[in-house]
Amino acid sequence: MLLIRSENAALEKAEQALVARRQADAARLRTLSIAVIIGALLASAILAALVTRAARIHAAELVDQNETLIRERENREKAETMLRQAQKMEALGQLTGGVAHDFNNMLAIIVGSMDMMLRRLPDGDERLRTLAENALSGANRAAALTKRLLAFSRLQPLDPKPTDINKCVSDMSEMMRRSIGEHIVVETVLAGGLWRAFIDCPQLESALLNLAVNARDAMGDNGRLTIETSNAFLDKAYAAQHDEVESGQYVLVAVTDTGAGMTPDVLAKAFDPFFTTKRVGEGTGLGLSQVHGFLKQSRGHIKLYSEIGVGTTVKLYLPRDTANRELPADIEHRPASTDDRTHPVRTAATDGLLGDLASYLPRKASTPS
């Protein structure tokens, strides 16, 4: 009996030990499973973070590459637009230059003949004299127009010299005030230590007067016109983005008005000859094109900035005068008929008429008045 009880107790202990081991194994298995799951979750999170980071880096690289491509495309389109504009301006320059040169020759005949006629008219015939004077005045206005066309086409001979731009602007300021009226305030801001420019001062004065008149028309009844001078430098990057611009030092003349401003479409055509937003009879459309031609011929640069309702600024970059400068061949001061490469050949009929007119001059000189 005691033996049986002893065996039962042993069996119970063994069974309890087995149950305890199973419970311990189950607990360890649960702990291991939880650890594996947590590890897998951590690994997944780390992998997801790495993938996300790599995706962001790749996306940023793609964005940068796309922006680079967009900039290259815009630069290419801008360069193509500038090339087309340069070709158009060159063609217009050749056309207007040829026409203006031929008109100059014909106008020389008209002006000379009318002048001789006025000198020979008998006293007392005031009606005929008035008609002749009106005809001569109209011919002179036409000659002034062809002069502006020649300036646009770069066929007008220039006489560039070392020039004090501050003095040039100061001398012009009073004439500007008289030309544009007292209702427009003219202000000059002249920089100290300004470099000298290598420029044709009378032509620069004409350009400034053109800009002042344009500004007056844009401002209307009242406004402010500011002319400011300063030293400037155009770097190679800027020169590469603009046609026929040389990098280097310039004397800057900025003409700013408080007018209505120009839209981008008008701004793009501002230098085109005969383009104008004024009513018929109020402008020829040659003001800015003449200034543009003068700056190009002088190896300078012109830049327009405009904002609707704010005003317009025209920046004239004049080449700085340097020591031992060689006079460029295309701006040497020479008679207009001496270079067959740039000026149209006169027709035989025109030469004959000029010869006929010249034949009167010795006779007139020897005829008592």
From TrEMBL:
Transmembrane segments: 31-51
Coiled-coil portions: 59-89
An example molecular function term from Gene Ontology annotations: phosphorelay sensor kinase activity
Domain Histidine kinase: 98-322
Assigned EC number: 2.7.13.3
Matching Pfam families: HATPase_c, HisKA
Reaction catalysis annotation: ATP + protein L-histidine = ADP + protein N-phospho-L-histidine
Keywords assigned by UniProt, alphabetized: Coiled coil, Membrane, Phosphoprotein, Transmembrane, Transmembrane helix
Top-rank lineage group of the source organism: Bacteria
Biased composition range(s): Basic and acidic residues: 327-343
Ranges where the record places region Disordered: 327-346
Protein name: histidine kinase
Species of the source: Sphingobium yanoikuyae
